[in-house]
Amino acid sequence: MKVSVKVPATSANLGPGFDSIGLALPIYNTITIEETVLPGTGIEINLMSEDDALDEISFENIPRDENNIVYKAVEMLYNSIGQEPSELKINIQSQIPITRGLGSSAAVIVGGLIAANKLLGSPADETALLSIATEVEGHPDNVAPAILGGFVMASQEDDGSIVYRKLNWPDEWDITVCIPDFELSTSIARSVLPAQVPMADAIFNAKHMAMLIHAIDTKDEKLMRVALQDKLHQPYREKLIPGMREIMEAFKHEDGVLGCVLSGAGPAMLVISHKYDIDKIKSTVKNIWEGQSIKAEIKTFKIEENGAEIIEG
Ligand code: HSE
């Protein structure tokens, strides 16, 4: 039996919501898992990228054995019902650029789990899958919207349980994703964050997160422009992303641009706008990055309201 799952890209944090919120975007990975019939064949992991040569080096570095994150997630699911995975063929068809802050690892983890769950006769419910995905990924803010689609808040509580809700997102808001041609691993982007932050910065983010949720819920664009600010992760990551501060500054006083934030751990950036000239966004970002000898792929999307979906099997 063979199961294929299509999973959307995701962008976490949205400024003040560090490790807490994320949204799905219409770029997809497809993960196919097949139980092979030949005993003793072990696992086989194949990766195919629809992107250009940009990802070749990162692709080479992805483990094709038991250390692969998809396999690890699948193994945890099997173990949770007292089984061991044996002969599995895992194919990953990737459209989501890797190590750019667009949830490529969350997508493959979620896709692998949903496919394996179907192969096993669906023993795990959504919450159980989300819990395993969070354990493998380390935080729930990408895996939750990858499963559910749309705009999602998610928290791993102290007892390990995951609390999550899908919230409204104004469909009329455009999301422009600016993807530079350099990679930044999440582990490096997390390594520059301090273990402790000033109380004033924590309060700043709590206030802006409250504003953000209300602004999104009520489509309050004026409030959104204030809300999309952060003091917990972006200021520390700035040094890893040339041009980041300049790009954010460039959109600060543009009517119609609601904000500009780092996508997840970066280096991709998001510009959220409404009735604003998208070409102007593209040329502003391109010009700033070109000044730093950085090429960029820039695309404008609406949010993807659908989450992971079984497309075969
Ligand atoms: N919330 C995470 C971070 C997302 O910013 O490190 C990484 O994918």
Give descriptors for this structure:
seven-stranded mixed β-sheet; Ribosomal Protein S5, domain 2; 313 residues; Alpha-Beta Plaits; 35% helix; single chain; binds L-homoserine; alpha+beta
Radius of gyration: 19 Å
Number of domains: 2
Largest sheet: 7 strands, mixed
**Secondary structure: helix percent:** 25-40%
CATH class membership of the largest domain: Alpha Beta
Give a description of the structure:
With 313 residues, the protein is an alpha+beta fold. The chain folds into two domains: 2-168 and 303-312, Ribosomal Protein S5, domain 2 (2-Layer Sandwich); 174-301, Alpha-Beta Plaits (2-Layer Sandwich). Helices cover 35% and strands 27% of the residues. The protein contains eleven helices and eleven strands. The strands form two sheets. Strands 1, 2, 3, 4, 5, 6 and 11 form a seven-stranded mixed sheet that branches. Strands 8-9-7-10 form a four-stranded antiparallel sheet. Helix 2 packs parallel to helix 3 and helix 3 packs across helix 4 (126-137). Bound molecules: L-homoserine. The site of L-homoserine has 13 residues, from strand 1, strand 2 and helix 6.
Give a short synopsis of this structure.
It contains 11 helices and 11 strands. The strands form 2 sheets. Strands 1, 2, 3, 4, 5, 6 and 11 form a 7-stranded mixed sheet that branches. Strands 8-9-7-10 form a 4-stranded antiparallel sheet.
SSE order and pairing:
Elements (H helix, E strand, L loop, with lengths): L1 E12 L3 E19 L7 E7 L6 H5 L8 H12 L7 E7 L9 H16 L6 H12 L5 H6 L2 E6 L5 E6 L6 E7 L5 H6 L7 H20 L2 H7 L6 H4 L6 H7 L6 E6 L6 E5 L4 H13 L5 E6 L7 E4 L1
Parallel strand pairs: 3-4
Antiparallel strand pairs: 1-2, 1-11, 2-4, 2-5, 5-6, 7-9, 7-10, 8-9
Helix pairs in contact: 2-3, 2-4, 3-4, 7-8
This protein binds L-homoserine (HSE).
